[in-house]
Amino acid sequence: MFAFLANPARFMVFSAWAAPVLFAGALILFAAGAPWALFYSPADYQMGETVRIMYVHVPAAWWSMGAYAFMAGASFVGLVWRHVLADVAARAAAPVGAVFAAVCLVTGSLWGAPTWGTWWEWDGRMTSMLVLFVTYLGYIALWSSIEDEEKAARLAAILCLVGAINLPIVKFSVDWWSTLHQPASIMRSGGSAISGEMLGPLLTLGGAYLLLFGALTLMNMRSAIYRRRVNSAELKKARQ
Amino acid sequence: MSAFAVTFRRELALMWAGGGALAPLGYFLGATMLVPLAMGPDRTLLEAAGPPLVWIAAALSILATLERLFQADLEDGSLDQMLLSPAPLELISFAKGAALWVAIGLPITLAGVPAAIALQAPVERLGYIAASLALGTAAFIGVGLAGAAVTASVKRGGVLLALIVLPLFAPPIIFGASVASGEEVSAALSILAGCALGGAALGPIAAAAALRLQAE
């Protein structure tokens, strides 16, 4: 499939219908998941109604990390196989992932204030999410500060892979600190610790965020390809 | 003479000639000097916050030297000569990093001991602080090589370089500060050594890959 889509022309045909389909899917899942999470799921016996922030916070955390993993994969493909579309994909995913990371940080802070009694705590997960956010900013800034697009793509890919090594190390190293954040409760040995009534809307919204990520990334890629076409058309015109 | 030795000596000579090693050292001492001025000379406060602030000063003074590390070579054509040389660019980058460590990491390590004493660090922990600074500056330089190479062709790239490199400084800072504060010292020192070795191994490879693109 990837080899088939590697051709930009074919990609444009594919994404012309794939992006709206993903977007519509995201809308449907949001329409289903948001009321389920905000009105029909139970309040937590400890945290009360504030637990509903989780449905915004946790999927954003998942897919901000997922987006970085995607970028690292695309950067690797771009570096090794010199693939134009992979470079475009890595660049297109970055702003979406950065916004997810920002949403995760802001909602986490809003959640922390009533439940932990503090807006910010330098615990492992929050700190590593902050480092992820800053890494996104550096990546985006590097892209936009180098004019030659091909060079920018290669350099950003190198940076993205260096960051991909750094982020797990940051994650493990900050876990050494005394940790306020609850440990992982869904993906753990011995089954999920979260009740089914909360897991349903959480996974629905997780799917919604994923589809939204896919739709926005595809749209970003399309606009980047259009921009390239405009640039080369203008170059052609200028040469005549 | 081997390519490593030539590059190493050239870098050291350049840094001494430009007063390059003195400037970051002065930066380091100046930054640590500002700490008690900002926090007040309260002894218990300094004991808690002083050694970590030595780490911040060390990280910033290394950062300040990184901007010109490859940029100067790119501008004056030395980079083209390095690319023409039969020696691999990875080895040349490694030699540049090693020279930077000798010229700046080592003086900071030595200056860090009196700075830590002045900031009321316990005397019995000074050996650990020196060892951790030696390893930590090596780790900073390792990842800094990659950041400096990636931003070498960006004009006035200093802010961009800081944005890129500071998140990469996070692991050595965490373990360095935990050595300074005396928690789980031997484990933190081994991990710090891991960061230094990892940076020394991977930094030159990433830097060389980025430099090949810059020269095209």
TrEMBL record, chain A:
Organism: Candidatus Viadribacter manganicus
Similarity comment text for this entry: Belongs to the CcmC/CycZ/HelC family.
Record key words, sorted: Cell inner membrane, Cell membrane, Cytochrome c-type biogenesis, Membrane, Transmembrane, Transmembrane helix, Transport
Recorded topology in the membrane: Multi-pass membrane protein
Name recorded for this polypeptide: Heme exporter protein C
Segments traversing the membrane: 12-40, 60-81, 93-113, 125-143, 155-178, 198-219
Gene that this polypeptide is encoded by: ccmC
GO CC aspect terms: plasma membrane
GO molecular function: heme binding; heme transmembrane transporter activity
Keyword Transmembrane: yes
Cellular compartments annotated: Cell inner membrane; Membrane
Protein purpose: Required for the export of heme to the periplasm for the biogenesis of c-type cytochromes.
TrEMBL record, chain B:
A GO cellular-component term linked to this record: plasma membrane
InterPro entries in the cross-refs: Cyt_c_biogenesis_CcmB, Cyt_c_CcmB_bac
Claim: Ubl conjugation is one of the keywords in the record: no
Main location: membrane
GO BP: any one term: cytochrome c biosynthetic process
Subcellular compartments: Cell inner membrane
Lipid bilayer topology: Multi-pass membrane protein
UniProt keyword list: Cell inner membrane, Cell membrane, Cytochrome c-type biogenesis, Membrane, Transmembrane, Transmembrane helix, Transport
Residues that span the membrane, as ranges: 12-33, 53-70, 91-117, 129-152, 159-181, 187-211
Any one GO molecular-function label of the UniProt entry: heme transmembrane transporter activity
Family note: Belongs to the CcmB/CycW/HelB family.
Function: Required for the export of heme to the periplasm for the biogenesis of c-type cytochromes.
Name of the featured protein: Heme exporter protein B
